[in-house]
Design a protein that fits this description.
single chain, about 200 residues, alpha/beta, UDP N-Acetylglucosamine Acyltransferase, domain 1, seven-stranded mixed sheet, five-stranded parallel sheet, 4 helices, 16 strands, globular
Amino acid sequence: MKQAIKYLLNLLSQLVVLPLIILSKLEEIIFSKNTELIFNMCTHIVALLPGLPGAFLRRAFYSMTLDKCSQHCHIGFGSIFSHRSTTVEKHVYIGSYTIIGSAHLGEHCLIGSRVSILSGKALHVMGDDGMWTPYSAERLSLVKLEKNVWIGEGAIIAANVGEGSMVGAGSVITTNVKPHIIITGNPARFVKNLGTDE
């Protein structure tokens, strides 16, 4: 019974955000994935919807506009995805005010509030004229969080994080993180293994 009610609420939520879904899909069809202005406007709208209804409506919008977004996840108030090229697997929890770029979030990831997951480390490069270049979709790279990763509040993630690892609050990750370790700090440093032999 509980699953049936949740299914109906998810369906109703998709109907409520259908105008935003249609706008975003039309932009994608007309301009391919090179333009995300309308998509980003829609992400800001759904980010500000409060409470449990807001959580349902965000999930409904993203399940129809991202590459993949499970109906079994939580996306907190104020959180946005800045690119469609993102996958959210089932049982992912995303806290409030988190910004996620091009990413793959594995099953059972816990992402704290105010986390930034960047679309790699090369979004802006120094041009031949000595000036920093503006954002370009060609320089996006997918950041992958393997399953069962925990990202602490306020962390900045610009590289992959291995399965079962924990990134401490406020950490800055610029190189790939191995599986089953704790890493923390700015710059991030190894703290301990999370193996079963301990």
